[in-house]
Amino acid sequence: MTETEATDWKPDEVEALAVDGLRWLLSVARETGDGGLGWPTRPSDDELNPMLYSGTAGVVPVLLEAWRHFGDDSYADAALRAARGLAESVESWEDDSLYFGRTGMALALRAVHDDLGDKAAGTAAGRALELVRAGFDGTRWGELFELMGGNAGIGLGALLAGADDLAVQAVEPYVRTAERTAAGVQWQHRPGAPGRLHHISHGTLGIVYGLAAVGHAADRIDLVELALAGAADVVSRDEAEPGGFLAPHSDPHHRPDIVARHNYGWCHGPAGDAQVFRLLRDVTGDPVWPALADRCWHSVTHSGLPNRLRPGFWDNNGRCCGTAGVLALAGDRIAEQGDSPGFARILVADIAAHATRDADGARWSNVEHRASPSELEPQTGWAMGNAGIVRELLRHVRIGRGGDPGYAFAWPDQPVPRAQATDPIRPAGEDVDVAS
């Protein structure tokens, strides 16, 4: 249960909260050249941020979600203006990755092209991927070598954009850089890193996701087998009580002074691990993977979250490392397996309890218990802010009303619910040439 009583919020009430979240998000947008829109990470920041992780590219999906959900063209107009702002950043931005760079920008631009018919957005998406191609040095694009900032994420983004050759090129270097372990393989996520990370955001399972998705789509059995070897390494590190699954953050433990050994969110915990296991289920058909996803869910639901049990435990509302990311998995399980919505309702009630609502709308402040004041400024984007939270609230409303449990924008590392998917990697209707 939550710290407050777990009120059963009705779909209309959750929808009203989401509308308030959208209102605040639009109120802090800034105009760019040529009538575009952009968002900073925080309203107090001087610079606009184009990233999928924490900026404008991550806001576009929730605008498309709101347009589809409500049928209100004002959200489509905002998405079109956001695409104009993103297009202005394609040439000048210096990162090529999925979450921090041009690959994520290309996916957001392509979504605007596909959903709203905006040819300029499609052209800008194509140009972004051209620049990504040009940035490859034969092994990597930069310091990071994982899903968020490196090859695995670029491979996933290229795959969703229909650039299969670039997707294969991105993940093939993992074949020659894999480090053998007693149970499988692992990878160094950045040069000089003493420890090895294990989960989806920066660790082995994120690389596993990229290898499995690209390998399956390209009919490259060697890449799928390498993905399975990486998954086997992480599975061998399970430290959960019977019935659960809980691998450590890293080995040797990275920054034990500030990083907990076990976490539960999307980024470094079983809420994200389960997404990888869902994909491996779809790729291989092996029943071991849905069983592992169930064990992940057991650990999540028995961890105590979303209660804030102690300083530093579960003090984030967002999609990356907080409550909204767990809600995403809860929705997937309801859609695929007919899970009871009870835990999802607890998560929604907790998100509602931590919202600040006033005349400006609704927004969420995360907590850094080591800082004073500990309450952080609200953020706008997918990872820690309104965009990621509102997107999950709108989906929860549709599920509660018996509607479509899918999204307007298929997130690269969240498998489409199996009952909805014609292809486990690429949803139907996503084969438009971004350069057209």
Structure commentary:
It is a single chain. By secondary structure, the chain is mainly α. Strands 1-2 form a two-stranded antiparallel sheet. The protein has a two-stranded antiparallel ribbon with strand order 3-4. 57% of the residues are buried. It is 47% helix and 5% strand. The chain has helices spanning 11-27, 56-70, 73-89, 102-116, 119-134, 151-160, 164-171, 173-177, 204-217, 221-235, 270-284, 288-301, 323-337, 342-353, 386-400; strands at residues 30-31, 37-38, 179-180, 185-186, 196-197, 250-251, 355-358, 361-364.
Map the helices and strands:
Blueprint: H1 11-27, E1 30-31, E2 37-38, H2 56-70, H3 73-89, H4 102-116, H5 119-134, H6 151-160, H7 164-171, H8 173-177, E3 179-180, E4 185-186, E5 196-197, H9 204-217, H10 221-235, E6 250-251, H11 270-284, H12 288-301, H13 323-337, H14 342-353, E7 355-358, E8 361-364, H15 386-400
Antiparallel strand pairs: 1-2, 3-4, 5-6, 7-8
Helix pairs in contact: 1-15, 2-3, 2-4, 2-15, 3-4, 3-5, 4-5, 4-6, 6-7, 6-9, 7-9, 9-10, 9-11, 11-12, 13-14, 13-15
Quick tags:
mainly alpha, two-stranded antiparallel ribbon, 15 helices, 8 strands
Order of strands in the sheet with the most strands?
Answer: 1-2
Q: What's the mean pLDDT score?
A: 94
Number of strands: 8
Q: Low-confidence segments, ≥5 residues, pLDDT <50?
A: 428-436
Radius of gyration: 20 Å
Main beta sheet, described?
2 strands, antiparallel
Structural class: mainly alpha
> Percent helix among the residues?
40-55%
Secondary-structure element series: HEEHHHHHHHEEEHHEHHHHEEH
The number of helical segments is 15
Q: Give the percentage of residues in beta strands.
A: under 5%
Give the overall form: globular
End-to-end Cα distance: 50 Å
